[in-house]
Amino acid sequence: MGSLRSRVLGWVGRRYLARQSKKGFDLEKMSSFLPDSALLPLKRDGLDPVPEMAAQRSEAPIGKLDLPFGMNAWLVTGYDEAKAVLGKATGFSSDFGNLVGNAGVTADQNPGGLGFADPPVHTRLRKLLTPEFTMRRLSRLAPRIDEIVAGQLDAMAATDGPVDLWQAFALPIPSLTICELLGVSYEDREDFQRLSTARFDLFGGAGASLGAMSESLTYLLDIVKKQREEPGDGLLGMLIKEHGDEIDDRELAGLADGVLTGGLETTASMLALGALVLLRDEKAMDAVRGDDESVHRFVEELLRYLTVVQMAFPRFAKEDMEIGGVHIAEGDIVLVSLSTADRDPKLGADMETFDATRDPTSHLAFSYGIHRCIGAELARMELRTAYPALIRRFPNLRLAVPEEDLSFRQVSIVYGLDALPVLVD
């Protein structure tokens, strides 16, 4: 077990250093072959998509996108059009095989999991995983999430001077929660909390991101093998106990990797950016001090407004079709800007602003259709627990630096901050 732990912690450290050095994407590498127009969906002005995205949504909710390697690509920015694409499971493919042969991507780099799978493989795997994400199963994590949040707040209170809310609060809460969910054994929390990812770099040459995926799967395969020998009470152990003969080790590792990467960076980014929204907005502060319904409204509006996963998994057209009056040919790649679609006026009035009292919308922060995030309810549990606890514990919470000095990721599918220095006294 010690050898496995060493490999896990070594992997965690390397991934963390990779994130620190890349800041989301390797911009130098991308700039050599991607036009500026292709990067616009991954850029923001503070918390807002760049203005060009709203202009494109208004002019052409489905418009051509310049991509290299001879790809005929479309960018979807309208809400109705986004739902039409994401909900058309039979007309589009997300299978990893569509990427093989482009930008040096090879078949053995397939990370597995749900995101890059089509039915019937996707259907079978999701059916196995879904029971583990029902509210009944997730409710067992609620006391542990309370403990995790309280522990991080205690550590923050014991710190003299400014605290980096990203490192001390936003990152460790989902990291430790996912460890509980998966049933992964570890002893050194401080090292494990450094776990992070830049997994969806589908545009940047693919090699670095897919190499990280392979490294992730290697260590998770070791954990799966240990769980086969002695299944625990976490997600991996439960899947082995209930469906061990229906799923092989690589599929299990792929599912675990998807849970780990899909629920870590995204929720961490939400927690940090949401804290910034709280510090900006007194109505938001009042909302999280209020009753459960007020907190629910705040969290749903925050999910819509921030939509930290800016782009959905790429879809490849399996047939000629027409969506929103636009002809999409078989083989075309379709990219959906979730962040721009969630600002569409069709969702309601004044969607470019944050309103903590807004009635919840049918936002796309967790995507839509068969690839809707399976961990959506777990993320909501963490957000609804963490924000009220933060404000109750530190009513005088404030930024330790001018807001204009904050560093946001410049180009990233999962948008976020690099750090969030605050004072808690």
From TrEMBL:
This protein's UniProt keywords: Heme, Iron, Metal-binding, Monooxygenase, Oxidoreductase
Keyword Metal-binding: yes
GO molecular function terms attached to this record: heme binding; iron ion binding; monooxygenase activity; oxidoreductase activity, acting on paired donors, with incorporation or reduction of molecular oxygen
This protein's pathway: Antibiotic biosynthesis; vancomycin biosynthesis
Cofactor: heme
Keyword presence, Iron: yes
Database matches in PANTHER family: CYTOCHROME P450 BJ-1, P450, PUTATIVE (EUROFUNG)-RELATED
Role description: Involved in the coupling of aromatic side chains of the heptapeptide of vancomycin.
Family as reported in the entry's similarity comment: Belongs to the cytochrome P450 family.
Name of the featured protein: Cytochrome P450
Organism: Amycolatopsis mediterranei (strain S699) (Nocardia mediterranei)
